[in-house]
Amino acid sequence: MSISSQKVAVIGLGYVGLPLAALCAKKGYPVVGLDAKEKVVAMLQKGQCHIRDEAVERLLAEAVASNNFSATADSSQISDCNIYLICVPTPVDANNEPDLAPLEGACRTVAPYLREGDLVVVESTVFPGTCEEIVAPLLEELSSLHAGKDFYLAHCPERVNPGDPFWTSENIPRVVGATSDEGVDLAARFYASILGGDIFDVREIKQSLYPKFRETEYGLHISQVPLGSVTKMHSIRDAEAVKAMENTVRDVNIAFVNELAKISDVLDLDVVDIIDGMATKPFGKGPFYPGVGVGGHCIAVDPEWLKAASKRAGYMPEMIQLARMTNNGMPAYTVSMLQDLLNDRGYPLKGTRIAVFGVAYKKDVDDPRESPFYSLRDQLLKKGAQLNIFDSWVTKENTVDSIDECLQNTKAVVIVTEHSDVVEKLDKTDLSSLGIEVVIDGRNALDGDRIEEKNVLYRGIGRRA
Length: 465
Known about the structure:
Blueprint: E1 8-11, H1 17-26, E2 31-34, H2 38-45, H3 54-66, E3 69-72, E4 83-86, H4 101-110, E5 119-122, H5 130-143, E6 152-155, E7 174-178, H6 181-195, E8 199-201, H7 202-208, E9 230-232, H8 236-267, H9 271-278, H10 302-312, H11 318-328, H12 330-344, E10 353-357, H13 372-382, E11 386-390, H14 403-407, E12 412-415, H15 420-428, E13 438-441, H16 448-453, E14 457-460
Parallel strand pairs: 1-2, 1-4, 2-3, 4-5, 5-6, 7-9, 8-9, 10-11, 10-12, 12-13, 13-14
Antiparallel strand pairs: 6-7
Helix pairs in contact: 1-3, 4-5, 8-10, 8-11, 12-13
């Protein structure tokens, strides 16, 4: 199959699928983007981006200008494609068990149109074994074709970092695995064609790059792999595990620094200053920083997929379980800090009006998925607090229309997301003049010394009281 002459279908036009579809179109592929949300499709058909991200908006504009991109909610429009990229969400349910319904639905959409020689790539996050045990049998049953023989099935775990101006869909290194050698070669050539980088074998990387750094305890770092490179894995199960494990490593490390933050609170230490000091050591550390909680569709979800796969195989990963419990417990810990400081000023949490800033899971992005905001909000409401809520990026939960209005008639401020506009405004505002007496900085983003100079109680996560 000649890569350059193929037509691409991207199933799912969210944070993963849209920039990928736009990049393929920019690189010269005819692309059909399929999404079930008609409002999203209508915006894209007008050349409007439904994601607030400068890199994605620029890519979409370039894709529209190329005349290679079209968006549709009609699945029949992908019938003449040769490369199918599945980019649908893979959430967890209320019991933190993997929900494969969106992925299975995408497979049912693609299967009737599969022909010999076609390539199917799952970019959605899955647990090891999903492609071989669930995706391949479903595609084979509905298409009467065989994976690895009649069509090729690969996995290329998405790596999206919303709001990052440098690491984008155009340059971030990728890894691919497939159910056959031919499939992994084909998928690698495809991704190399849109990324513009080199193709590596995972074992070649170890042999050619790693020896240069063997005397350190680092191993291989992503900065030593060329921009836009594609690494071939020898097992599709290994490729599936890459995403889940890399985000689990982050989750466990964040949980550990959240534990250090709690230790710092009881020992009257400043964990942020300590971490900054530790970061001066040029080897063997992160740094990671504590906060009100973790969110997003990666760190808060991928460890659950890995844990579920491990449990099904008979092993309960206790460290992952503990990390999840620690990070999921940070909103409650933050609420407890707020309650203590309000008590110090003679106010009960019940009936007191609180300004809550931030719904998005991350600074300067419009993505609220798995945000600790929801847990924190629900706990505050359960305890009887009255809330003013504002987020300039995610407005659907707002109860007020501006930062100034959010601060009105409140006794305390809680920072959940350190959006640039909020931090800049609060750092310049005399909060005490507004009657505010307590600030809980869930992201350690504000100038605490300046706030306390105005006789306002300030606490960050793990910061010295």
